[in-house]
Every structure is written in C-alpha cells, then in structure tokens.
Amino acid sequence: MIEGKSASLGESGQSGEVVQLPAPANAGVDIALEELELIYAYVYVRVGNRADAEDVTQQVALKAIPRLRAGASAPAIRAYLFAAARSALASFWAARFGLPEDELRDDLWVEKHAPEPGTASADRVHGILDQLPGNYRRVLELRFLRGYSLKEVAAELGSTVGGVKVMQLRALRAAAKVVIDA
Amino acid sequence: MPEHDEERAAERLDRMVSDLLAGKHLKATPSDAEEQEAIRAAAQLAGSREGYPRMSSSFRGRLRGLLEKGEPAPWMNRRAALVGGVGLTAGALAGVLGGHLGQLGQVLQPARQQEVEQTGETVAPRPPAPRSVIEPRPELGRWIDTGILFSDMVEGTPRRVTAGSVGAFVFRKGDQVLAMSAYCTHLPCELVWKSSSHQLNCPCHNQLFDADGLALGEGYKLPALPLVRTRIQNGRVEILGTA
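The joint structure predicted for all components is written out below.
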C-alpha cells in the first residue's frame, strides 16, 4: 500500500499543481531523535545515571537503524524501540549481576504502560517512600531526592556516617520489598 | 560476623549510590547479586531526581551522527514529504499513514511554500481567541535566525528555540510556522514537548497545552501560551527575540 502511494506522490509532484519541497534529508533523523528522547527517559528512570542511560540508549539506536530503513510505520517503530530498550535493560542488569536474563525481575518497579517521562515517576517514588518507616523514608528522601551527602544526612538525623550507610542499606532493601509486594 | 557483613554491604551499596548520584556508571558486579533488588531500588530512586530526563546536547549530537550514517528512514521522509504540501486529501493521508496521522489533513493547506519563503511574510496566529504576543522593547527587539530550515521542519515535531530573552517552541502548521512561548502561564517552568500525546507539558504542575498553545484540562483554564512573532526568510525560520 505504501509503495503504491509513493508512486502517485511523485506524479502529483510533477504535475505542476502543487509545489513539492525537496525532501528534507535529515527529517528522519530528527524524528528518530525525538523517539529516542522517550527511550532515554525510559532508561534513565531505571538505571538512575546519565552514563549508563546513554550507553543503553545508544544500543537501542543502533538496533533500530535497520528497522527505520525498512520503512516500518511510526507506531511500529516506537513499539520496536521500547521492546529493544527493555531487552537492552535486561542485558544491562544481567551483565552487572552475572545472572541469566530470564532470572531478572523485569517487572520490578516497571509500570505496565510505556512511559510518560516524569509524570508518574515522582508520584510513584513518593508512594513508595510513604510506605516505609519514618527513619527509612527520611534517609532516602535526604540522600536521593535532596542530594544530601552522607555527612549532611548524618548531621540532619543526629547519626554517624556509618550509621547512615547501614540505614540506607536497610531502607533500600525495604523499598525494594514494597515494590515487589505492591 | 553478621554485623560486619552488613557494614560491608552498606559500604559497597553506598559507593554505588554515590556514583549514581554523581551521574556515573553503576559499578555493580556479580558479587553484588545478593543486593540486586536494593541496588535497582537505588537506581530507580536516583532516576526519579529528574522529572523529565533529557539527553544532553553532546549525546544527542553523537546519536545524530550515528543515525545519519545510515540512509534516512523512508517512513519519515514520506511523512515529511506529505506535510511539505503535496496536497493529498485527508482521506488519502489516512490511507497512507494509518488513522492516527489522519488529523494532519486538517492542517494541510494548499501549498504556498515558495510564496511564503519569498515574501518572508509574518505568519498570522491561527487560534481565534485574543492572544497575547511577546513584543520585545523596540530598541532591543531583533529578528533572530534560528538556524532552522523551514523545509527541515516536520509537522507535529516542534523545535525549541531561544532568541536572546525569548524562549519559544516553533511548530510547522502546513505551509506556515507558529511560535509560542516555551514557558507555562501558571508558573514560570519550562514546558516539555511530549511527542507521544502531541502536547506541551509543564513539569511543575503537569499542566498541558495543545500544539496551538491552548491550555487543556478541566476546570480553570490557564491563559494560552503567548505567541512569539515568527517569519520565514530565505527558507529559514526567524523569531522576534532580543539582541
């Protein structure tokens, strides 16, 4: 179907009835980059740092190029990119932990729908933190959401750096449980 | 000793947390598998710090280089060609591209591309409602070349531009361009384009604006985004900003 229409486009362009702009050479790349912004956000909220988010996004981009050339539809491209991103993320965690990919709890912290970057992540995090005991919630809020150093957290909580480290470990274990049980 | 084990685990985990918070690679190894759930929880928390994670411009540039090595994607070129004013009906468009792009037909207009380019006319705002327009003080106002070729613009994908003190999103609307403020009319937060829903979103209070800059959502309607004067000169998009 697409091929047929493509031919008729050429004809109407030559008929003189309409003005056809030269096809922009990099329009495809621009749209691909916009799609990859979504992928980057999707990956970033899962790996938590720019460096790894960039690596995984780049892998997805490389995988996607042949698919782009094959002329798939826009929704199909997006679906493919997200599938590629999920697979690249599974490989990322499997490589880090030395585990087979199918052993990973891929549903961990992962909402069912494709991401709307940001809209839900802050709410989701607060929803999880709210279920933790007060001291665990506090240490995670200060450390992650406010970016306090260990020293600053210790001063704020009247604890020691070592004490905060242990509390952070317990709080993160507890946070992971909240997510799994949810 | 269990206590020592916990301290060591806490120490290792904190090193990862510190790296994450500094934007560095996660340095987990197979020996950390026991703590994988806590580590992934830490990654998720670190990842929630940015409401709208965006690629850095240098990374975006790298990706662009990567993608440009390949042939431009045919599905994208075809769409761009359609929006460029080939003059298909909305029905034909829907036939080619599938229903979700059919609405493009509503904004497709007879191609007057070269006329617009040659005359450099200022494009009138589309929405009917009275709309504020950003008018820089005459002694400071300047037409700024955004560096964007109109022919490179794609319907449904605005460009974010800055011209001195004026920040704007520029949309292609058929053979015209429409530029509007890039800042929410509620709180002065910078809007983000959501290509999935074709809306501008304010990260501060989740306010939405459509591609004409009109506020969406129920209840009290925020003012529409102020328009920014824009024109096409020699095929390039300019906006009225400040020097």
